[in-house]
Amino acid sequence: MGPDDMELSADRKTLWVTFRFARDVGVIDLNSRKLIDTIAPGRSPHELYFADRAPVYAPNPD
Fold first, then answer.
1. Which of 60, 52, 38, 59 is nearest to 8 (CA)?
2. CB-based contacts of 41: which residues, under 8 Å, 6+ apart?
3. Phi, psi angle pair for 36, to nearest 5°
4. What is the pLDDT of residue 22?
5. Which sign, positive or negative, has the C-alpha torsion 52, 54, 60, 61?
6. By C-alpha distance, which of 31, 32, 39 is closest to 17?
7. Domain ranges in the chain?
8. For residues 1 and 62, what is the distance between their CA atoms, to the nearest angstrom?
9. What's the gap between Cα 33 and its chain centre?
């Protein structure tokens, strides 16, 4: 029952993770690396998308 999908907040302070089969979304504080909150959105939460999110940097295609 591990993490399914993840999204990084725009301030890069929290990582939001879906625990699909546990039916929760977890919020992890990246400084402490601890789960600070869980949210029960309903049945099988899958995929996260923040309109205001941290930028994605692709590796250099050397």
1. 52
2. 23, 24, 25
3. -105, -15
4. 85
5. negative
6. 39
7. 1-50
8. 37
9. 13
Question: What tens digit of pLDDT does each residue of 1-56 get?
Answer: 567 788 999 899 999 999 888 889 999 999 999 999 999 987 887 777 777 777 77
Strand (E) positions, 1-62?
6-8, 14-19, 24-29, 34-39
Instruction: Give me the amino acid identity at 49.
Output: Y
Count CB neighbours of 15 within 10 A.
19
Say whether 58 sits in a helix, a strand or coil. Answer: coil
Q: Is the CA virtual torsion 8, 33, 47, 37 positive or negative? A: negative
Dist. CA 4–CA 44, nearest whole Å: 10
Do residues 30 and 14 make contact, with C-beta atoms less than 8 angstroms apart?
A: yes
